[in-house]
Design goal:
The protein has one domain. The protein contains 4 helices and no strands. Helix 1 packs antiparallel against helix 2, helix 1 runs antiparallel to helix 4 and helix 2 packs antiparallel against helix 3. The relative contact order is 0.14.
């Protein structure tokens, strides 16, 4: 079992990473930089949704809604990556698995406490 403070720290670090990476994508979209058949507007929309979901993920009472939003963004990003030639966008599977782990670990800790 993971102590509560370590799990909270992991959640905060994961969310901070997502926000940092999404801000970079958002700024690239605003600047008009994009890859593949989708335009920069798609980057701005996905990055905005990911930033909002990553921040909401920090609020445990709404973590399931935030998790669903994050998984949807990761799935869309994986599909767009595949369209642009990324053979296997495993990073999005990893991000989704990490978010699922955080929620499952917290819920398991809450049941045993």
């Amino acid at each position: 079992m993971i102590p509560g403070w370590q799990l909270r720290a992991f959640r905060w670090i994961f969310s901070a990473f997502l926000v940092f990476a999404s801000v970079k994508v958002f700024l690239a979209g605003v600047a008009g930089v994009h890859e593949g058949p989708h335009g920069p507007r798609v980057l701005v929309i996905l990055a905005s949704a990911e930033i909002a979901a990553a921040i909401a993920f920090l609020i445990e009472p709404i973590e399931l809604v935030a998790l669903a939003a994050l998984l949807a963004v990761f799935a869309a990003a994986a599909a767009l990556s595949a369209i642009t030639g990324d053979i296997l966008p495993l990073r999005f599977v990893y991000y989704g698995a990490t978010a699922l782990f955080i929620v499952a670990a917290r819920r398991r800790s809450a049941l045993t406490a």
